[in-house]
Amino acid sequence: MIRRIVSVGLLAALAGCSKEAPPPPPPPSVLVQTVADGAGEQLRVFTGEVVPRYASDLGFRVGGKLIERKVDVGAVVSKGQVLAKLDGTDMKLNVSAARAQVAAAKSDLDLARTELKRVETLLSQNFVSDSAVDSQRTSMEAAAARLRQARAQLELAENQTEYTSLEADADGVVTAVYAEVGQVMAAGNPVVTIAREGDREVRINVPEGIQEKLGVGRAAQVRLWSEGEKQFVGQVREVAPSADTVTRTYAVKVKVDAPVVQLPLGATATVVFDGGELAGVRVPLRALGKLDDQPVAWVFDEGAGTVSPVPVKVLRYDEDGAVVSDGLLPGMKVVVAGIHLLQSGQQVNAVAADSAILLDASR
User: Fold this and answer.
1) Chain segment 299-355, per-residue pLDDT in tens
2) String of b and e for 4-33 (b: at least 16 CB within 10 Å)?
3) Is 64 exposed, middle or buried (0-12, 13-18, 19+ CB in 10 A)?
4) Which among 68, 87, 140, 281 would be 20 to 30 A from 103, CA to CA?
């Protein structure tokens, strides 16, 4: 009985030893991308809008209640045209008061002149002293000064009456309205914005650091969305010296060499600056890692099916990736996903980053 049990155990052990070893796990799959032939042409593209070269916010030079506004947004106006009016009742009263002051000052001056002549006559008869004449002459000069002051006050009051009418200072079009009838306006508050007839330009906003490369006179290509692929020649006319407090971007104005009729105000435009050919090759940001504090890219060897880190020199980073000058050549394949899990010489299964299988899997 014992022999049978031992025989069965030996047979079981032999049967277990005869099983095949499990196959090794397949190599991990990685996404690879072929390095492009050169970094290509550096283009900086910004979107902006067509604005007038000259625009003015017009407001009253005096305060008061707005009783009439004659224009709306889009109205075409000519120089001297009345745009809005204030209630001028108080101004007219000021004119009446100033005229009364002028009449009173004139009467005082006439009286002072008459008194001076009378005193001079008495002086010729030795009835008064010279000081009396000097005193009366001073009174007459003071009366003449008060008359000049009253006339100036009258002119000021009359001007303020005229200021109750807001007139266009140039030919143009109304692009904005800020006040409605019945509103009490303070002196200087804008009522309308007038875009003057003439040159128009495209205003764009660029991030910090870019404005230093866009100096005045820099050439550009301008394309309006409404004009399709048609392009116009542009030139940087003005670069803001400081950033906007909210967006932290710099305003840049590009003069466009095109007829005004082809540049409608407010139209969306694209401005392209040509930076020329760049040295080096461009790779995605996710293809770069660090090894011993040195930037590296993981290159796939098609013959051996392995990956290895290659030190690179990064020239710059931008919105399209990174430009490197050393370590990579056009045609090489670099890993663009999962580089932190790789080891030098590791066998991998390379899958093109733009392959149809990947696109289908990400759907």
Assistant:
1) 998 888 898 999 988 877 766 778 887 788 888 888 988 788 888 888 888 888 776
2) eeeeeeeeeeeeeeeeeeeeeeeeeebbbb
3) buried
4) 87
Cα dihedral 167, 173, 179, 182, rounded to 10, equals 60
**From the CB of residue 182, how many other CB atoms can be counted at a distance below 10 Å?**
8
Could you tell me the pTM of the whole model?
0.58
In whole angstroms, give the CA distance from residue 42 to residue 318.
10
Half-sphere exposure at residue 24, Cβ-oriented, CA atoms within 13 angstroms: 4
Residue with tokens 């002028």: 102
Can you name the residues that pair with 222 across neighbouring β-strands? 232, 271
Task: Walk me through the domains of the chain, giving residue ranges and CATH numbers.
Answer: 29-40+280-361 (2.40.420.20), 44-53+198-277 (2.40.30.170), 56-87+164-194 (2.40.50.100), 89-162 (1.10.287.470)
3-state secondary structure of 167: strand
The pLDDT value given to residue 293:
85
pLDDT tens for 68-84 read 999 999 899 999 999 99
Within 8 A by CB and 6+ apart from 192, the residues are: 57, 58, 71, 83, 84, 166, 174, 176, 177, 178, 179
